[in-house]
């Protein structure tokens, strides 16, 4: 299939030069109203980044608005959602120092001196991953480099000086942790060469949902559609959890070949899959149900060696990517909201394939 290197209608593309950042998160503006006051029309999300310089930054309209510091080392992970109820939202982070830290995004001061609300101890190794439970917004799941999984009650952490009682569940998985995803009371953990589901209420294993040999490099899921995606060296795979419930040897429903190097970055929503990696200057877009490739987007200023995609955040028709070298990095914003359903160039006699389709509120997934 003929794939365009750049979509012909880019309505909003912005490049920002930043220091090396390690992780990106997009959070809804309506959850952070105590931080952003005044005219906010047209801006629906706030970008949060973590960095190897021990900091967490909040970005607004291309500028850094807040900088939080407290970790004694690089910040390796950020919660995928904000924790808590309305009016008391907090962000969780995990560090090379083995701690989980909770931050109030509504704290005053440019440097966020009053932002740190709690520090949770229990992991013996760096905290690589974290996710908010789907059935209870105060529960945070974290996993450290030694594959130890911990479940924290952050509501108790922010209201009590006793931190040791905040851990309410533990488990372990074989292999190096890659990613995890919560849906309702289920926790999907990708580590080593397999993706495993746990029941958060009992911390018991439910199913081995996927096996990707020789090892997993990335993982994402849409549990409400029973679909999960794994990335490896040179290819990605699409899995249907329902087909693997009774199988001792899970089989994928589609394989996506043709990647350059390891597929370390994955995004899935009900309409599309976006894949990328540090050895490829382009991110690829695929249809979620068929695995058909629809486009390929340059994520750096050049497509030369050493300028691959190092981090990625996708929200509906918006995509943010970072690419960095030894001296600096490039943060690229694209907005396809006004052109989401235009078909890309195709070969003769091939059916049209839509690049993006805007997600309605009813179709969005955790």
TrEMBL record:
Q: Transport among the record's keywords?
A: no
- WD repeats by residue range: 68-105, 120-162
Instruction: Report the protein name in the record.
Output: TAF5-like RNA polymerase II p300/CBP-associated factor-associated factor 65 kDa subunit 5L isoform A
Q: What organism, scientifically named, is this protein from?
A: Glycine soja (Wild soybean)
Keyword tRNA-binding carried by entry: no
UniProt-listed InterPro entries:
WD40/YVTN_repeat-like_dom_sf, WD40_PAC1, WD40_repeat_dom_sf, WD40_rpt, WDR55/POC1
Pfam families found in the cross-reference section: WD40
Q: Which PANTHER family match?
A: POC1 CENTRIOLAR PROTEIN HOMOLOG, WD REPEAT-CONTAINING PROTEIN 55
Its domain of life? Eukaryota
The protein's UniProt keywords, in alphabetical order, are:
Repeat, WD repeat
